Amino acid sequence: MQRQVQGHYITISTVGEKAQAFVPAPLPPSPPINWSAELREKFDQALLALGRLDSVSVLLPDTSLFLYMYVRKEAVLSSMIEGTQSSLSDLLLFEFEHQPGVPMGDVQEVSNYVAALNYGLKRLKEDFPISLRLLKEIHSLLLSKGRGNKCDPGDFRRTQNWIGGSRPGNAAFVPAPPDQVLECMGKLELFLHDSPEKTPTLVKAALAHLQFETIHPFLDGNGRLGRLMITLLLCSEGILKEPLLYLSLYFKTHRQRYYELLNEVRFTGDWENWLNFFADAVIVTAAQAVGTAQQLMNLSSTDGQRINTLKRISGSAHLIHKALLERPMASPNWIHEKTQLSPATVNACLREMEKLGIVKEVTGQKRNRLFSYAEYIRIMNQGTEID
Description:
The structure is a single chain. By secondary structure, the chain is mainly α. The protein is built from 15 helices and five strands. The strands form two sheets. The protein has a three-stranded antiparallel sheet, sandwiched between helices. The radius of gyration is 23 Å and the shape is elongated.
């Protein structure tokens, strides 16, 4: 549906030239969304897909084991969209005592994302609402270390930014001036809290994500926080019991179309086209997450049966297997502390599990060794290959 421009322009003067900064109109869209039969059907499919995904948290023997890696996969993908070149294995190595050879700058940003996401989820469990305060707190962690720590972590921007181009004059998009950011974000917060009217959660997530990206309230980290906000909103309003939906892989795969649609909404008001894309993203991503969970459950079962062949040490090997499901890259010392098995037993079991092809030593060293649950990591790596 074609509408007028979804906002208005303000002429600004920055870095020695004038430019047109865009201030978005508050949500919900006006005139209201045109819910065609096709679009309504698409959102019904998306809600069904989310229901199937939510049921996975019941089927998994221990959802926290799955979430540990899934959160990290999302961190890698979301940061990858912003140009980082860190892999899932890099992140696991970095978290394990900052192993040498890992690209520190990129992986620090990914590690920040994990911390920010976990913090946001913790606050939600404490019944803290999604609000400007929470978004600022999450942002402060997102940019706490590494390249973004000079970009006012936790504070809305006080200077003009732009997207694409070397200056505002040749930018692809110039967001609202800094003196308009707080008002724009205040109106977005009201919309998140169902004012001026109640909005279905999945529709709210789609509209709010685009609005946040349009306001671009921070100097850095807007894309990562905007994608993270989708999952937090679905969890806070009870659509998902666990944070299992992350759209970064879909947005990465369809990056060009994603950016085109952001601009189409801003300049033509075609919210329906964006909602259709967003629903597709949910349907595809939810199905992928269900498939990944099923692969991991099958892997755990199959490897458990292979461990049974170890006879005398199978009981100890099962304990190590469970520990590696929680942290699929670990040192013998960490496994010893986690399982309370003796170092000699841990090393003996790892040797036998390596012969079975379940674990793989990744350092090539005799000391400070690390073992990876290689097939588990391969399954989680799907989609995170560096372009």
